[in-house]
Amino acid sequence: MSEFSNFEPMFQETYKFILDRIKSNQIYIMDEGSWRGRLCWIKLAVNILAAISHTAGVFERIGQGADLVQLSTDLSAALILWQACLLYIQFCLNRKLLKNFIVHMGSNWRIDDQLRPDMVAVKHEYVTTFLRWISVFYKAVNTYLFLYLMPRLAYTAVKHFILKDSVAFVTPFYVKMPFKFDDNFLLYSLVYLADSKILQDVGYLVTFDLLFMNAALHHLRLMFVMLQDDLKHVQEESVEQAENTLRKIIPLHQDLLKLMFELSNAFGAIFIIHLAFFSATMCFFGFAARIHCSPESIKNLLAANIILVCIYTCCYYGQNLTDASVDISQAAYESQWHLKSQEYKKCILIIMLRSQKTQYIKSTSFTDVSLETFTKILNVTWSFLSLITEVYEA
After folding, report:
1. Hey, what's the signal peptide range on this chain (predicted)?
2. How far is it, in rounded angstroms, from Cα 59 to Cα 175?
3. d(CA 293, CA 291)
């Protein structure tokens, strides 16, 4: 990660933390070595095989007469694996876009010497609070995945070796393999651990790619807040200094708007994949919990809610970023431009014209990353869940 060496340590920490979690899936964004690039495609092939095995398991259970409630957990696992495959493809194809975005944002990141003391305190609070939050979130996800995947294997081992009782050798989710493994504990444990490792990596991918987007939205919004602060206090400078400051602000503002466009290109497809799969996954988990409220279904519903939190924070930070970009116009207007020179007024007018048009982060040409989108996806999910429940009960 040599590109990070020129960036402020505070900026580096957040992205290093997130990218290190994504590396568990052999996705190297800042380290683009040729052999590392191939690892991503090998990992993708492994996940496609896992998705096929779990999908085949679902069809086998359908053939055995399983109903929708019994299939909901396995079906959701298969959907998440296929979702992860699409996310892998997007990451492998968009690594350069993601890397260029981080480098571009890092080159525009404001160090403490360029800010007023009050703004320095705000910046530190913003960045450290967010890093603390994702650190706690990582520990929670790590604990949840371990408690979700490992107890069944421990229980089976205790029953089989210590209590000498007959126990079914079952994996966390039903998986169809080309060989029989449920009559040999060693083979069973190897399949169990391999499947659990794949599912754990998928869990990191489907959460930390959204946290990656969260960090980008959060930091870019902070950069707009810093720019607002510059505009609010430019009036305190002499006329000549104020004009020079505005000449520097204009290209900086243009760069921030360009970063919003780059963020849309880098993360748009990733976000829409999450939206497309989230409704189906949430519906199946919610359906199972509503019809048959077992500990297993509640545990699965909690997993879906973790993704829900990540999607909500993306929409929340996306809305805040949009609002911050529009607020530049208000900050420029309040800079007492009417008392300044003609050159000063021209610079203010350029800034206001650029910021008056509302800029959204786009996941597609018709979907914005905003709170309105989050409301829509919840409405669709609830409608789909109600429909499935009514059909099943009928």
Report:
1. none
2. 10
3. 6
Here the tokens at position 111 are: 């160090």
Q: Are 389 and 269 in contact (CB under 8 A)?
A: no
Run of H or E residues at 243: helix 239-291
Of 91, 358, 328, the C-alpha closest to 202 is 91
| Cα-based torsion angle of the residue sequence 317, 319, 325, 328 in order, rounded to the nearest 10 degrees | -100
- Tokens 């429940």 correspond to what residue? 389
Q: Dihedral sign for Cα 55, 57, 63, 69, please.
A: negative
- pLDDT tens digit sequence for 311-326: 999 999 999 999 998 8
Amino acid making up residue 86? L
94: nearest Cα among 27, 45, 39: 27
Strand, helix or coil for residue 285: helix
State the DSSP code for 112.
G
> Which residue type does 242 have?
A
DSSP state of 362: E
Nearest to 322 by CA among 272, 366, 356: 356
CA dihedral 106, 109, 112, 116 (to 10 degrees): 180
Closest residue by Cα to residue 223 from 259, 185, 174, 182: 259
The 8-class DSSP code of residue 100 comes to: H
The neighbouring-strand residues paired with 362 are: 368
Q: Which of 253, 256, 378 lies closest to 315, judged by CA?
A: 378
Domain spans, the chain = 2-393
Segments of the chain scoring below 70 in pLDDT: 1-4, 32-38, 289, 293-297, 339, 394
Please, what's the largest Cα pairwise distance for the chain? 90
Q: CA nearest 148: which of 226, 76, 93?
A: 76
Is residue 363 classed as helix, strand or coil in its secondary structure?
A: strand
Pair of tokens at residue 151: 């107890």
Give the whole-number percent of the chain exceeding pLDDT 90: 32
Q: Rounded to whole angstroms, how far apart are CA atoms 151 and 357?
A: 54
On whether the CB atoms of residues 326 and 355 are closer than 8 A, the answer is yes
Count Cβ atoms below 10 Å from residue 82 Cβ, excluding itself. 18
Name residue, tokens 């964004």.
29
Report, in this order, helix, strand and coil percent for the chain, each rounded to 5.
Answer: 85, 0, 15
